Each structure stands twice: as structure tokens, then as C-alpha cells.
Amino acid sequence: MELQGNGFLLRAxxxxxxxxxxxxxxxPKVSAFLRDRFPYPYTMEDALFWVNxxxxxxxxxxxxxxxxxxxxxxxxxxxxTDESRITAEIGYWLGxxxxxxxxxxxAVKLVTTYAFEHFSLLRLEAGVYNRNTASIRVLExxxxxxxxxxxRSVIKxxxxxxxxxxxxxxxxxxxxxxx
Length: 179
Hints:
Number of strands: 8
Number of helices: 6
Largest sheet: 8 strands, mixed
Structural class: alpha+beta
Strand content: 25-35%
Helix content: 25-40%
Shape: globular
């Protein structure tokens, strides 16, 4: 499964992605607003672990963002279960040298469409820390709407921050594509 974007490709993680993954992920600016499970420093062992975990994933929910043949970021959805099985969370990151080019927004749009087409979802959501203004813009440009502010709900690198909850619904996403 591959999703072609303008200037990038989304595909499954594969053996050989480790060096470029480690290169782009090992940046404190990249990990600054990601969950603690995304480590910094990002070592080759971290890259080997992730590629091994993600490469044979079924169903495919995590994609490498590939630019010029190099894995420069990642995007995926975490499917919820039980009574929340109609919802998934989308998350993404991109190497700093590719920031500000619209690639993250385009990738979010592609994966949003993919998720609604391939899973029995009605809702995709994303939590973003209030200081991550670039990611807020990505979500808003991709059609996500802010639903809530979870005040003082996260701590990252010793700083307590608010988390903004964004969401998009399947019927709204389909309607925006028709417009």
C-alpha cells in the first residue's frame, strides 16, 4: 500500500529505513511536542526497534513519509477499541529540513482519507500541545476543528502545557472533498 503525495510518498516502513529514520528523528525540535514514547536522543537502536515493529503491520496504520527515497518522517493512526472503535487518533512528525513546505498537511489529508476508507471509523482526532503552533496550522489546513482545550493536562520536558483536541468526522471530510 502506497499513497502518493506531491513531492512525497507514504508507504509501509521497511528494512533499510533505519539510517534515515534515525537521522531525521534525532532532533530535539522534532521530539519537542511528541509523546515521550518518541525518544530523544533517537538512537539507531530506537530506529531498528521501530522499523522491526512497524514493517509487517496488519492492517497498515503507520506510514513512512518518504522524500527523494529517504524516510524523513512518519504518520499513522492509532485505532481505538471497545466503545471507542469508531474513533482513531492521528499523529505525525517530519524531519526539520522539510518543515514549512505543506508536506505535513498533505500527508494528514491523505491518511485521513485512507483511514476513513479502510476502517469503520466515523471520527479521527488529534491532541496537540498549545505551544505547537505549526501542528495546529497543519490540522486546521487539513480540515480538523478544535473541539476542546484540556488545560494543564500534559507535561513535556518539565513544562506543563494545555492540550488542544482537534477532530474531523467522516461525513464532514467527504463533504469538504466534494466542495
